[in-house]
């Protein structure tokens, strides 16, 4: 395996790992708040569950980026391309937007979800407002994954 290919694979792995870690931390954070609320009012489970799930999307974005990169270099079809070091670093750089923004936005979206869960506990009819506020943080993860995808496709 060439050095460039290895660098690209490390970029793909980090996108999946770091975004997944951010989402796992955030979903756990919001899950703790959700468990407390649902223990007091089980009828809120459906509304609260959606809020807990929202910070998990960044993990999917990192995974999607990793799959796209691995597909672009032929790693999924068994035809792994030897890449130059420059191209490997280009692929690695293409993963950085989602790797960094995915992790950070997952954590902050988790914090927002916790606040929205507390809002829903006090005012169940405000759960839609809480979902909207939590989903706004998602915008930046979406922009980051689109940037990474466009960069990967531009290299391919």
Largest sheet: none
> What is the H/E order?
HHHHH
Question: Any guess at the CATH architecture?
Answer: Up-down Bundle
Q: List the total number of helices.
A: 5
Q: What fraction of the residues are assigned to beta strands by DSSP? A: under 5%
Number-wise, the strands total 0
Helix content: over 70%
Identify the CATH homologous superfamily: lithium bound rotor ring of v- atpase
Which outline best applies? elongated
Total domain modules: 1
Give a structural overview.
- The protein has one domain: Four Helix Bundle (Hemerythrin (Met), subunit A) (Up-down Bundle).
- Helix content is about 85%, strand content about 0%.
- By secondary structure, it is an all-alpha fold.
């Amino acid at each position: 395996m060439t050095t460039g290919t290895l660098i690209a694979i490390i970029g793909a792995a980090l996108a999946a790992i770091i975004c997944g870690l951010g989402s796992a931390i955030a979903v756990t954070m919001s899950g703790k708040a959700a468990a407390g609320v649902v223990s007091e009012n089980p009828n809120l489970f459906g509304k609260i569950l959606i809020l807990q799930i929202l910070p998990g999307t960044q993990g999917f974005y990192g995974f999607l980026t990793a799959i796209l990169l691995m597909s672009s270099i032929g790693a999924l079809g068994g035809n792994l391309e030897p890449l130059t070091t420059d191209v490997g670093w280009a692929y690695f750089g293409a993963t950085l937007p989602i790797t960094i923004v995915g992790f950070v936005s997952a954590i902050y979206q988790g914090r927002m979800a916790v606040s929205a869960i507390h809002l829903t506990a006090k005012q169940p009819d405000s759960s839609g407002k809480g979902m909207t506020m939590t989903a706004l943080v998602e915008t930046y993860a979406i922009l980051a994954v689109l940037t990474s995808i466009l960069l990967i496709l531009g290299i391919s």
